[in-house]
Amino acid sequence: MSAIPSVDLKDFTSNDPERKEKFVEEIGAAFENIGFVALSGHFLSDQLVDDLYEEIKKFFALPQEIKDSYEIEGIGGQRGYTSFGKEHAKGKKEGDLKEFWHFGQYVEDDPKLEAEYPDNVEVKELPNFNAVGKETYKMLEKTAKYVLRALAIHLNLEETYFDAYIKNGNSILRPIHYPPIKEEPKNAVRAAAHGDINLITLLMGAHGKGLQVKDHEGNWVDAIAKPDQLMINVGDMLSRLSNNKLKSTIHQVVNPPKELWGTSRYSIPFFMHPVSDMPLNCLENCITKDNPKQFEDITAGEYLYERLVELGLVKK
Ligand SMILES: O=C(O)CCC(=O)C(=O)O
Ligand SMILES: [Fe+2]
After folding, report:
1. Boundaries of each Fe2OG dioxygenase domain copy (predicted)?
2. Second label for 247, Cα 20 to 30 Å away, from 54, 155, 233, 268?
């Protein structure tokens, strides 16, 4: 049996109260324990997933000068392209063995947030790239909204507690390419051990080996999803809000064995962020005698800025 439990979002979106409760219990238990869950019943169609992979493979195969023209100065890599080796895990000097693209929020009816967020970047060479990215963004955001509704119930909050904070939130869709490995990496891996910054992460592409999750005993366990499943995990923002009741588990992407060095890995995390003025102050009902308040009060925007500096994406 896999160490990562499986859940079906259709249980939650059914109108059957028993199935809904079952989903809340299962995901709540998984997130209090290993911090990861494999989820089916999401809103992505097979066609959309195939289209997205096709587009991102074409993008990463473009000549380096063209990709570099989409790396925008001064926005901390929040939109467009980030080149190979640039991002490093907190406390590590070697860059991860990856290049990636960022799609950001498509703000509706909110001029203040429209001004706050950088614009999405259009890839001129690929006429379908941006439309497919936008559609995927919307479907993952919708999936995440229901997952957060279930977590709100689990945390004894009103079911729609997160809705207002995630509407026009600062979420990021990040297609990643881990290129073939040419020579023995010096102390670098595809993605060094880290916790995610955001509320929750929905990961497409965890179908082959590579992603590993650290369990309570400190063992690395493989996190592999079935073809119809997304891997979902708790990020540090939700861990703070819940006073660490929900666990933001450390994970990494290891290099493949030498016989597979010639292959690329493509994975696509959706990092669900709230709007920047959401307070991440520990919820009163998660502070108890046995679990006193563990984190200082901070807003999502302040916290994100601190973390982007640590990752080498924003210079102070
Ligand atoms: O590539 C993967 O499977 C996971 C990537 C990841 O953990 C991240 O980008 O935060
Ligand atoms: Fe991650």
Report:
1. 168-274
2. 268
